[in-house]
Amino acid sequence: MPQEPRVLIVDDDPLVGRLIGRSLVGFAAVRTEFAVTEPDVIDWEGFDLVILDYNLPVRNGLEILEEIRGVRSDLPVIFLTGFGEPGLAEKALQLGSNLFLTKPVGPKRIRNVFQQFFPDMDENATAPILLEEDAPTADRGFKAKIGEKKEIFGTVSRFGYRSAFVEFTLPCAVSEGDEVADIRFRFGDQMISSGEGRVGGAVLTSPTSVETEIGIRGSWHADVLDRGDQGELRGGDMPDHTKGNTSVELKEEWSFLSADYRLAVHDLGEVLNAVFNEASAFETSVEKEDNSVEKLRRDTNFVENTARLYGEIFWSAVERFEKAALQVTDTDMQVLAKEFARRILYPYTLSSPFLSRVVERPIGVPGDYGMLGQILGNPQEGFTIYDRIVNSWILSCGAASAYRYRVSLLHREIVDTVRECANEQRTTKILSMASGVAYEIQRFIQNPPGMGEVEFTMVDFSALTLDEAKRQYANLGRYPAGISVRMEHSSVIELANQSRQGTGASIPDDGFVPENDYDLVYCAGLFDYLSDRLIKSVVAYLFSLLRPGGKVVISNFSTKNPIRSWMTYVMDWKLIYRSEKGFTELIRNAVPEGKIQIETDEDGVEVYAVVRK
Predict the structure, then answer these.
(1) What is the pLDDT of residue 204?
(2) Are 88 and 503 in contact (CB under 8 A)?
(3) The pLDDT value given to residue 245
(4) Same structural domain for residues 155 and 21?
(5) Is the pLDDT of residue 161 over 90?
(6) What angle do CA 93, 98, 101 make, to 5 degrees?
(7) Is 234 exposed, middle or buried (0-12, 13-18, 19+ CB in 10 A)?
């Protein structure tokens, strides 16, 4: 065996691969693969350990594990998944997995497991990272004081219950037990502040950095920042939006909020606190056990049972919050209501991976592929059992269910359109505007109905999103015969404006110009942010791109969204809601010659217009 064990990580999530790779710096030479799309493309003889995810594009982890065991019986394989399915654990172990781990796993756990297989490795050794791709990160600054003058700076990696995990560059200026004050977090476009806290344990994440838990005492204060004026992320002063606002003054301001609203917010906090206490007690009772299949079953069952037991209480508290929040909607109290809700609820909710991603908004909204991918993925994600429960709750709400329905509806429209064109023996042309990574197209490619040729064109204004789309589609492997995908960087609003003004010299030579013979054009998830005037303009433009008989599909969140105030005040996710009737009239005014069919999801949270030309 070489001096430095060679470790292969197979995981389609670049953040997971990066975390594991960083955790093994100084222990092993690490290579990351996003997928193993075909047999025999990996030389398994070239590795000493494989860390293998289950949920992968094209071929899942069980299929790859079978391939490995057909070549090498001695290669240690750690099976990794976030799905938490007991049957899956048994299958992996039966196929020859040496160990089964559930996501998320922290750096310390990764290294402990690694040393089970390589106990003689020198912890002071330095090993290169063969492949470590950094995903784009948003502003995650941390600033605090130790004593009167000493300031410390770091980067927020994640939140816990009433704590934050901060990465410091070595040599680290803080030690376990240090008292810190004047705490400031910048998380996306949020400024979160607290008076004081305490430094907890630390874990080495690389030869040059350490991740430290900062426990936070008391309440948190949150402000929304102007993204255009945030200053330097590290090493400089972060804007202080709390100067001149003492806690006494803030409490006096809160008294202007209705008692119903304040009580509803506190009720939500109390429910979450009760769940945290119960989940922590359970986690403590089993934390000394081995990571066995039986423990996995109990953890998963506990999450499901606790979510079911407290779920009715939690959603009842959310309903009270929604009703109470109506008293401050469209008033000058909204800013204060947001501040109060976030101060009380952020300590309980930011440890949910989904809610944390929403608050951070690393690539902004709409179209954050990370948020949308989490809605479609495993709801039981999180670093602790409590985090997994809260994450499951939020991803079971009507708004998340509406997005899952959206993907199914768009996939259905694609299949129906392809079938129509196949009957006419011609190629199907489909245009997805503000496409994101278009999970519905991926679903079609993975299981095509086998009817004729299809040309997909995906258009999005975010270069980062298109880069992620290219990565995900590359992981699908070779497309089935007759299917092609083209990706273009452009904005539907700019294209609509150019169309209205006339093309001419306004479009660069290498710019994208849509054709006008598409069989299906769809744009979902964008109109919730546009004014009525813009919607009319964009809908008319999209309709003009259709061939006779073609159809356009558009959507808008409706006024029936059951967590409308939660999204606005807690998640800082403000949408423009329209009733089914209002949205229908808007579309009819935009394309009076179109044949309009209206549809909603089961709970009526999102309304869709299918307009035939």
Answers:
(1) 76
(2) no
(3) 38
(4) no
(5) no
(6) 80
(7) middle
Q: In terms of Cα–Cα distance, which of 50, 63, 100 is closest to 80?
A: 100
DSSP state string for 533-552: HHHHHHHHHHHHTEEEEEEE
Distance (Å) of CA 528 to CA 191, 218, 489, 574, 577: 25, 36, 21, 9, 6
Question: First CA to last CA across the chain, in angstroms?
Answer: 67
Q: Give the whole-angstrom CA distance, residue 576 versus residue 560.
A: 12
Comparing 171 with 212, which gets the higher pLDDT?
Answer: 212
pLDDT value of position 506:
43
Question: 369, 395, 421: which is the final residue of a domain?
Answer: 395
pLDDT in tens, 22-75: 777 777 888 888 777 778 888 898 899 999 888 777 788 888 999 999 999 899
Residue 46 belongs to a domain: yes
State phi, psi for 610 to the nearest 5 degrees.
-105, 115
565 neighbors 533 (Cβ within 8 angstroms)? no
Q: Are 470 and 434 in a shared domain?
A: yes
Domain annotation covers residue 124:
no
Q: What is the mean pLDDT of residues 276-299?
A: 75
Residues in Cβ contact with 259 at an 8 Å cutoff, skipping those fewer than 6 apart: none
Judge if 464 and 583 occupy the same domain: yes
CA nearest to 458, candidates 431, 440, 496? 431
pLDDT band per the 50, 70, 90 thresholds, residue 560: very high
pLDDT digit string, tens, across residues 86-129: 567 677 778 888 887 766 666 667 777 888 888 776 544 433 33
In a 10 Å sphere around its CB, with 0-12 CB exposed, 13-18 middle and 19+ buried, how is residue 463 labelled? exposed
Q: Are residues 170 and 251 in the same domain?
A: no
Minimal CA–CA distance to 444: which of 420, 474, 480, 475? Answer: 480
Q: How many domains does the chain have?
A: 4
Neighbouring CB atoms inside 10 A of 533's CB total 8
Asked whether the beta carbons of 355 and 571 are under 8 A apart, the reply is: yes
Q: What DSSP assignment string belongs to 90-137?
A: HHHHHTT-SEEEES---HHHHHHHHHHH-TT--TT----BS--PPPP-
The pTM score is 0.74
CA 487, CA 545: separation in Å to the nearest integer?
A: 17
Same domain? 149 vs 68: no
Domain termination residue (choose one: 191, 218, 242): 242
